[in-house]
Specification:
Layout: E1 3-6, H1 14-23, H2 34-44, E2 48-54, E3 59-66, E4 71-79, H3 83-99, E5 104-107, E6 119-121, H4 140-146, E7 150-160, H5 165-171, H6 173-178, E8 184-188, H7 191-196, H8 198-209, H9 220-226, H10 229-234, E9 241-245, E10 251-259, H11 274-277, E11 285-293, H12 302-317, E12 320-327, E13 342-352
InterPro entries: Acyl_CoA_acyltransferase
Protein name: GNAT family N-acetyltransferase
Organism: Hymenobacter lutimineralis
Length: about 350
């Protein structure tokens, strides 16, 4: 039996048990922290109405109704392949969203693109699952299609193989030569640098991603739940960087990169750190993940400079690289154009009401 439960300061215990049933036969699974997610939901309840759709056994679905904006959302959706039950859940959620006056239902998205969102589509790529990559059973996309959803935004990740790397260096040689002459300072992003610039990094992230579709700003406290010194300790200090304008001292761009720690199968209670876990990797894949430029400094080639900075140390520390989760209409995707690569695809879905 499907229940619709208004959120009342906590999520039902079954909410945290359903993923284990869903991912038991799967080769990969999302890493989920009930403590962090519970804190996020509790804070976001201040500016959203939240409902839980579940049978307490095989499906969970968070209905998210913002206090402002034209779209309602669904997030933290996990389910066994029960088409009828999912159609019932999405029909109830869509009816409630329409009753409340929203124009679309969008997801999977946990309040904002700052948190977990999107589906991975098609067969698993050769790398299986990289750190924090959206993964889900292959039947998820069909369940959404059957419930009236279609992709509204698409994304991709690109793996450049080791054999391609020398060609990339030759192609970008002129760009590498310019790095010492640009009017910006490159700050290697160590944990100490992160801590020193934490407030400015928060403001930079908000500015870079603030205009992205479905992004909603988060509080500094919510930002620090996920992005803090522990997060900085897993970053690669050789390829991660902040770009600072020399004349003003303002942070204008960022590149957060880390090794793919997923092959180590670390327990959820053991956060990855570069110092401890990088030396344990049998194959060293760099993940180029959170890379962006402040809106006031775009169209100046800074994205290419960030990429070139990462290339300086790449061959010494890594075997290959995945450019992660790029929107297919984003300019950053063009850095790897012209080179052979393997691609994984993802999508955010919407249903008109």
């Amino acid at each position: 039996m499907l229940y619709c439960l208004p959120y009342d300061h906590q999520l039902p215990e079954s909410f945290w048990q359903i993923p284990a049933r869903v991912y038991a036969p799967e080769a990969a699974a999302p890493r989920e922290s009930p403590e962090v997610l519970a804190a996020v939901v509790a804070e976001e309840a201040g500016r959203h109405t939240i409902q839980v759709y579940t049978d307490h056994a095989s499906v969970r679905l968070l209905g998210i109704f913002p206090d402002d904006g034209p779209d309602a959302f669904f997030g933290l959706w996990e389910t066994l392949p029960d088409a009828a039950l999912n159609q019932q859940a999405f029909a109830q959620l869509a009816a409630e969203a329409k009753r409340r006056g929203y124009r679309r239902l969008v997801g999977p998205l946990c309040f904002t693109t700052f948190h977990r969102y999107r589906l991975r589509l098609g067969a698993a790529p050769s790398w299986g699952q990289f750190d924090a990559e959206p993964v889900n059973p292959a039947y998820y996309a069909g369940l959404l299609t059957d419930s009236g959803f279609t992709p509204t935004l698409t994304f991709e990740s690109r793996l450049l193989q080791p054999a391609v790397v020398p060609t990339v260096y030759d192609n970008k040689a002129a760009l590498l030569a310019q790095l010492q002459q640009v009017p910006f300072e490159f700050l290697p992003l160590t944990p100490d640098v992160w801590q020193e610039h934490e407030a400015a990094i928060f403001e930079l992230v908000q500015a870079i991603y603030g205009a992205n579709p479905a992004y909603r700003p988060v509080s500094a406290a919510q930002f620090k739940l996920l992005y803090n010194r522990t997060y900085a300790e897993k970053l690669c200090p050789h390829t991660s960087v902040l770009l600072r304008e020399r004349s003003t001292g303002k942070l204008v761009a960022q590149s957060f990169c880390n090794p793919n720690y997923a092959p180590l199968n670390l327990p959820a209670t053991e956060p990855a750190t570069f110092q401890r876990h990088y030396p344990l990797l049998p194959h060293r894949t760099l993940l180029a993940k959170t890379v962006g430029v402040h809106p006031d400094y775009r169209q100046q080639g800074l994205m290419s400079y960030l990429g070139a900075y990462g290339m300086v140390s790449f061959r010494e520390y890594y075997d290959d690289i995945i450019f992660c989760l790029m929107r297919t209409d984003n300019f950053s995707r063009h850095f790897t154009d012209g080179f052979p690569y393997e691609t994984a695809h993802y999508a955010l879905y919407a249903r008109e009401l």
